[in-house]
Amino acid sequence: MRLCAAGTSLAVRPPPRSQGVFELLAGHRRYVAARQAGCDRVPVTVRYGADTFH
């Protein structure tokens, strides 16, 4: 298991109706870079009630 931290956490929101996976709101490039680096985990901030991230 490998944890990668890029300085700023990714922003996610919970799935609707508590089913499925979290939706990525911000940090798409950091997510792709972490996957390419072989990271299994990255830090995230959960935004409850967020439709978009500003």
From TrEMBL:
Segments forming domain ParB-like N-terminal: 15-49
Pfam families from the UniProt entry: ParB_N (PF02195)
Gene3D superfamilies: 3.90.1530.30
Highest taxon, organism lineage: Bacteria
InterPro entries named among the record's database cross-references: ParB/Sulfiredoxin_sf, ParB_N
Protein name: ParB-like N-terminal domain-containing protein
